[in-house]
Inverse folding.
């Protein structure tokens, strides 16, 4: 309700500035005790996925809280889980601004943030300070100036650092804003990367006496044959989940709109149909061998349910939150309860 009034003000600002101000406001409201999880978030049937027990299936997608600096406030919205990052081993500024654009007529965003983040050390100290007890995914990537042939080193380094504080770790190989990153989705590269990570995961897991789940986040811009190959590689390398999808390079559904020509990944409503197709295709192919986490264009109860019906075990939102506000969590949880 409140968001209906604040949204026009926020939308009058530069999108990235509005993002920062919204999170600062939410932090303050949470500290004042004004934000508490809606009862609906506790009513949805809990479910076990990747060996973890989720209080509800709706999560916050990666990229909104890249540095894990707002966990208590975001958790207070009622999410069943929160994914922070993408974090890279070393801090990096990301691309020059402006790098985030709204396409309100299409309820879409285009971003080319380029993994702007404070690095893994800052993220870890923020997580420790948060005292968070809920399910936390940490999404990891490579630094922009690490050559793609050395990408594995960055993922191993980041994994080694974050696994102790992560309920699960997401391997992001699908951002369109880091040069050549999506190459890592190719069969040979993917097998090498995930094989190394799986070995490290088992080593770290033994020391911690727990299985550390790994999810792999993929792009929507893949053919059916590529999706099938990725699905089999993920199973073969002992991964725990696939997250589908990241933003798209397609501009279908936004042709002619202001900012449609900006470089970067498109998210929100125009991505919904493609993400649903990818999730449906993967679920069909995997037949329960690996859970699918569905993300892309979820902006109301019906689209959340459609993603679950397509075969997703869990779902995540980002752009829907920008257009619909924090009440979206309650709306979806109520409908699923
Ligand atoms: C501004 C912005 C930044 C993002 N940053 C990341 C990121 O750092 N890592 C990542 O895995 N996904 C990132 N994403 C992708 C989202 O997590 C999500 O996969 C995508 O936006 C589709 O979901 P949506 O339509 O609900 O936004 C970002 C999305 C946006 C809009």
């Amino acid at each position: 309700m409140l968001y209906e009034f604040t949204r026009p003000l926020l939308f009058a600002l530069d999108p990235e500035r509005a993002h920062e101000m919204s999170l600062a406001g939410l932090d303050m409201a949470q500290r004042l005790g004004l934000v508490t999880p809606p009862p609906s978030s506790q009513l949805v049937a809990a479910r076990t996925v990747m060996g973890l027990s989720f209080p509800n299936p709706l999560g916050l997608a990666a990229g909104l809280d890249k540095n894990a600096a707002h966990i208590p406030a975001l958790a207070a919205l009622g999410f069943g889980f929160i994914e922070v990052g993408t974090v890279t081993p070393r801090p990096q500024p990301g691309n020059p601004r402006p790098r985030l654009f709204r396409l309100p007529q299409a309820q879409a965003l285009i971003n080319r943030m380029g993994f702007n983040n404070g690095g893994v050390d800052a993220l870890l100290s923020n997580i420790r300070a948060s005292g968070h007890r809920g399910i936390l995914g940490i999404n990891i990537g490579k630094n922009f100036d690490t050559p793609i042939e050395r990408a594995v080193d960055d993922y191993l380094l980041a994994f080694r650092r974050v696994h102790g504080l992560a309920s699960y770790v997401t391997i992001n190989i699908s951002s369109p804003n880091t040069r050549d990153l999506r190459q890592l989705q190719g069969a040979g590269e993917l097998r090498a990367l995930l094989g190394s990570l799986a070995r490290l995961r088992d080593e770290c897991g033994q020391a911690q006496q727990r299985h550390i789940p790994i999810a792999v986040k993929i792009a929507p811009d893949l053919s059916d044959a590529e999706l099938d190959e990725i699905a089999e590689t993920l199973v073969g390398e002992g991964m725990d989940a696939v997250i589908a999808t990241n933003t798209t390079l397609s501009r279908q559904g936004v042709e002619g709109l202001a900012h449609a020509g900006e470089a970067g990944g498109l998210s929100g409503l125009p991505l919904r149909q493609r993400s649903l197709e990818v999730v449906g295709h993967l679920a069909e192919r995997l037949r329960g061998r690996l859970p699918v986490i569905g993300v892309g264009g979820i902006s109301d109860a019906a689209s959340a349910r459609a993603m679950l019906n397509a075969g997703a075990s869990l779902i995540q939102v980002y752009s829907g939150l920008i257009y619909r506000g924090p009440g979206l969590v309650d709306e979806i949880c109520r409908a699923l309860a």
Notes: The longest strand covers residues 81-87. The CA atoms of residues 100 and 111 lie 4 Å apart. The chain has a mean pLDDT of 96.
